[in-house]
Amino acid sequence: MTQSEVTQRNNGQAFDENAIGRNQPNTVSLPTPIQPQFRTIDGLSIRYAESADPGRGVHALLLSPWPESLYAFEPTWLRLAEHTHLVAIDLPGFGHSERRDGLMSSRAMGEFIVRVADAFGLEQPHVVGPDVGTNAALFAAALYPGRLHSLVVGSGGAAVPLQLGGLLKEWVEAPDLEPYRHLDGRQVVSAAIAKFERYTPTDAAREDYLSSYEGERFIESMRYVRAYPTQLPDLAGLLPMIQTPVLIIAGRRDHVVPLVNAEFLLERLPASKLAVLEAGHFTWEDAADEYAAFVTNWWGGGYATAGNQPSDMNEDGAAHSVTTAAQRVEVAVLAGGCFWGVEEILREVRGVIDTEVGYTGGWLENPTYEDTHDSRSGHAEAVRVTFDPLVLSFEDLLERWFFRLHDPTTLNRQGNDIGTQYRSAIFPQTEEQQAIAEHVIARVAESGRWKRPVTTSIEPAATWYSAEQYHQDYLRKHPGGYTCHYLRD
């Protein structure tokens, strides 16, 4: 993307004097697929990032969460961009976008979202609005029926009476903002992102989060959530009229915006589904793989099962609710030789939600495919499998599939592929997976199926490095390509 310079227009309304990007070129230059730019929308300097259009005619508008910025989508960006043309924005008053006081409420922000879609020429885009984007996206769908293709929301206040926790509850209920004006915005944000459970932001993302709320920008951004007591009751009354399909993604351990908010939406939205991830508040970062899997499956057609199809109509043509129970997800990391063939078999297994190939278990940071050759990095070629444990258990994944698709007795080798990168290994993500892996390996070794000893190792869960894009879904892109994997009887 080219960098742009924005000329501001002052129309007499209250603006944020500390907005970044006013009358100056965007100078962010980072080794990341997210390349921020600025453009003027409705007289405001709005920061955005845009992906290449894969040509499928599908567009998505991503709304930054708080107290982060559009860099919150960094861990999912490449995965999402494979499927859809993405436009991510910092909402007005958040991240590095300019603030206008009149937009610091859910309803006004919802109307602004539609103006953003108009400005980018996005016809019926999907919208992903975690956290503060939740209620804004829902207002947009309610006020502009048919304008949006579908919504992915969650981890944002919704329930009435309010059901919030921690400092968020305190900030919303405080009589005024004056007691908080002495707070250092950078310190507040630093404390917030320190609560990430698994994700470590890149240095660029971390600094972007901190600089987004320097000075009084954080205090002024609080105005948005402080409008919840008046905005959310209005939204609650509109929920039953929203026909746009909505996927709600929430963290089971979210103590800031408890799960009851997601359940409140599920009960009232006519076409909705709820996915509960084993995470805290920041599902889009702490559970990025699972989050991306749900979003891409939703965009790939999942939203249609939540919509009001002809069979979902009453005799008089009125729509009735289409909802599903919360779905659980679990992640397994398995290595069994060249990851192309392992992924191709596992992707078709019932209960598998998503697969990704990558590198793990070694000592070299940020390895490339070339680094794994000749055992130079210590990493194994592996597949990260996201699956529904209610449909496919980890034990069955190992015994019925993993130990059938490769030869676990050839040390550091599969077929003609030789080296430690082709070792047979399981990387348990939980203590329960550790125990199951030990049990299954022992059972396979004693089964008599293999003439040689089983060499599959159980290794500690380690940093996961996604492989290059040309390796993802390789055999789907190149039917008939090389593989030494097949299912053994």
How is this structure best summarized?
By secondary structure, the chain is of the alpha/beta class. Helices cover 31% and strands 17% of the residues.
Description:
The protein has 2 domains: 37-323, Alpha/Beta hydrolase fold, catalytic domain (Rossmann fold); 330-477, Peptide Methionine Sulfoxide Reductase, Chain A (2-Layer Sandwich), CATH 3.30.1060.10. It contains 16 helices and 17 strands. It has helices at residues 77-81, 106-119, 133-143, 166-173, 185-193, 203-212, 217-226, 228-238, 260-268, 283-286, 288-306, 339-346, 369-372, 394-405, 431-446, 474-477, and strands spanning 37-41, 44-50, 59-63, 85-89, 126-130, 150-154, 246-251, 271-277, 322-323, 330-336, 352-360, 380-387, 413-414, 417-418, 424-426, 457-458, 465-466. The strands form 3 sheets. Strands 1-2-4-3-5-6-7-8-9 form a 9-stranded mixed β-sheet, sandwiched between helices. A 6-stranded mixed β-sheet has the order 16-15-10-12-11-17. Strands 13-14 form a two-stranded antiparallel ribbon. Strand 13 (413-414) and strand 14 form a beta hairpin. Helix 2 (106-119) packs across helix 3 (133-143), helix 5 packs across helix 6 (203-212) and helix 14 (394-405) packs across helix 15. The chain is 31% helix and 17% strand. The chain is elongated, with a radius of gyration of 24 Å. It is of the alpha/beta class and 489 residues long.
